[in-house]
Amino acid sequence: MKKECIAMLLAGGQGSRLYVLTENMAKPAVPFGGKFRIIDFPLSNCTNAGIDTVGVLTQYRPLELNSYIGSGQPWDLDRDDGGVHILPPYQSATGASWYKGTANAIYQNIGFVDMYDPDYVVVLSGDHIYKMDYADMVAAHKRAGAACTIAVMEVPWSEASRFGIMSVDGEDNITEFAEKPKEPKSNLASMGIYVFSWSKMREYLINDENDPNSENDFGKNIIPSMLGKGEKMIAYRFAGYWKDVGTLDSLWDANMDMLATGSGLDLFERNWPIYGRSTSAPPAFLGRDSRVEHSVVTRGCVVEGSAENSVLSENSAIEEGASVEYSILMPGAVVKKGAQVSYAIIGEDAVIGENAVIGAKPDGSEGWGITVVGPETDVSAGYKLAANHMLNKTLKEVAR
Amino acid sequence: MNGLHGIIFSYEKESGLRELVEHRMPASIPYGGRYRVIDFMLSNMQNAGVTDVGIILHGNYQSLLDHVGNGKTWDMSRKYGGLRILPPFADNRKYRSGEEFEGKMQALAGVRSYLQEIRQDYVVLADSDLIINIPLSDVYETHLASGADITCVCTPNYKQTENATFFQLGEDNKVVKTLCSPKKPEGYHCLEIYVLSKELLLKLVDECEAEEKVSFRSDVLNGMGDKLDIRGYVWTGLAAQIRTLKEYYDRSMDMLDPKVYREVANAARPIRAKEDDETPTYIAPDSKVTNSLVADGCNIEGTVENSVIFPGVTVARGAAVKNSVIFKNTTVEENASISYVIADKNVTIRRGGKLNGHENYPMAISKNSVI
């Protein structure tokens, strides 16, 4: 059945800069904020914006992500007409190929998009934490009669050279695009969120595929090529909270933003809920001698020790005499008696043995950084994992 | 895979629950920070592989219908079978008077045609107001292995005794004596979970109806005890019947016992509740939360001690909540303090307010009250 607008969510990336956290799962499946996963944000934004058809393009380690999305019921995307669809690379009569790039991933699924015959396609990434009304962006795209609309936000000039930077005219028409420019001409950064008119996008995807020199990437190929041909492209300004959580530091930062009242990341706000698939554990239990301050807790957490400035996810536990500060315990992580965890990310179902010491407070030295323990890692009693180090489940320790 | 069908009775009016049942039935009373009481029996059935369940209803069942919906939470929204709601007198003209059922046999007679259509060979009958995490598959297998006519779950650890049934068990756990509402309880407290064959159930329903007998425990267990092979299945874990406000309070506080918490949290037999889609709970600097259960979506800035807190509760700066049970979306404003209180949904305790119940007589506050 025809849809005015559908969304395509790029969820195939490995997220190699999350290192041990994505050894066995795709980045969008990485847990966030106590009871969510990164992909909950774009999926909830879709459902809240009234977009009921979402294609999720997967490639790297899709098991965790596929089982998490399931029928799409937690996001109200289990529909007879539309709903959420997992789109892995597939074999065709002429051969098979992996998704070569973001544009190629959608090119390979032109058939899926055509099934819904949409006027507009929203292209999303699976690695951003933000709340955004895509319906408003699509409305702006329609009003302007654009071929492509790119969401942008103002970033500090000093950081502009880390982003894809858009130059615009007085009416926010995009005049120039530069990927990580040394000398930025603007401070409007692309958020990696696009609205395309499908007929235009389809044409550019096919041309791009026929170009043997293309990397088949939206930022590197499709956008510059559309600009070069003089298509109407506009910038859609966004001013709320947005964070790319593609690195360990930014993932830690974004989790900490949940605790900071001024950060703009307000998950309590009830008119734009973020949905997720949750476990069926009882509420958090805070024991007689527990001390929890300036932290978030959620179902299944059992705290007998202390937690400060931390995010305690589903079914995580802090035993007696153990302490956790400025850290993230991912679902099922256990900190045994007397262990100390500081400025660290502890992966899913990892166990920190008794009296182990993980991470350290910032000491002003060059070598300091967040410490990371990978999922399912069994850290032995008394182990010391220094600041800025990582340990995975084969117990291989590396400096970050 | 499973040859067991579930029937849940949810028609008792328990006036002893006072304010808690003003707007709901005992089965839909919130419990343990995020559950409704009926979640336990539905989850027990789900965890035993039971896919077809009928709930016999009577009374103020709107909130129960809202809660169970189509049974999706327990994977009981199925093309064939699944969850069936059986409102009063669905097919029996005789019981259309609108009066309450006098007993289980009468309630079952009212849904005779539903029972006839059950596609499984065995049936488990259970009450909706029992808090228990029991492997019903083991009860079922024990029943099959023993060759008994009826297997009844019972416990030697009883707390509630009023209007209860007790068994004396002999060799092979055979029920040798059944006592209904004895003055001096002894033996095993019957938890009113019964497994029997569909064939026997239909026979009993017809026999009782013909003789105008209404009660399972007095007319079947007691009345036919010499004709039937009735055996006990002894359960020693958590089993809480909630019939009075005091019992509700005490059993709620039991959830703070790590042993009871672990039993409810058992990952192999999870108790499923309708998803609340709440964000995690924020516990602010300078707050103090100890020996408490705190559900998602709360904002805690004050003190919480020995309490059970449901989703979406706010405890403001300087406020103190002690020895209390606080239902969904209730707010305790700045410097207010409450102790031994059961506050229903959407209650507001205004700034500086003080409310104290007593350990033996907790104070219950009705839904939507502003104090």
Could you describe the 3D structure shown?
The complex is a heterodimer of chains A (400) and B (371). Chain A is of the alpha/beta class. In chain A, 18% of the residues lie in helices and 29% in strands. In chain A, strands 1, 4, 5, 8, 10, 11, 12, 13 and 14 form a nine-stranded mixed beta sheet that branches. A six-stranded parallel beta sheet of chain A has the order 16-19-22-25-28-31, with no helix packed on it. In chain A, β6 (91-92) and β7 form a beta hairpin. With 371 residues, chain B is of the alpha/beta class. Chain B folds into two domains: 4-264, Spore Coat Polysaccharide Biosynthesis Protein SpsA, Chain A; 282-365, Hexapeptide repeat proteins (UDP N-Acetylglucosamine Acyltransferase, domain 1). Chain B has nine helices and 28 strands. Chain B has helices spanning 37-47, 62-68, 104-109, 112-116, 136-146, 198-210, 216-222, 245-254, 258-265, and strands at 4-10, 30-31, 35-36, 53-57, 83-86, 122-127, 130-132, 150-155, 165-169, 175-180, 188-197, 230-234, 239-241, 281-283, 288-290, 292-294, 299-300, 303-305, 308-309, 314-315, 320-322, 325-326, 331-332, 337-339, 341-343, 348-349, 354-356, 363-365. In chain B, strands 1, 4, 5, 6, 8, 9, 10, 11 and 12 form a nine-stranded mixed beta sheet that branches. A five-stranded parallel beta sheet of chain B has the order 14-17-20-23-26, with no helix packed on it. In chain B, strands 15-18-21-24-27 form a five-stranded parallel beta sheet, with no helix packed on it. Chain B starts with a strand and ends in a 6-residue tail after the last strand. In chain B, 49% of the residues are buried. β16 (284-286) of chain A pairs antiparallel with β16 (292-294) of chain B, so a sheet runs across the interface.
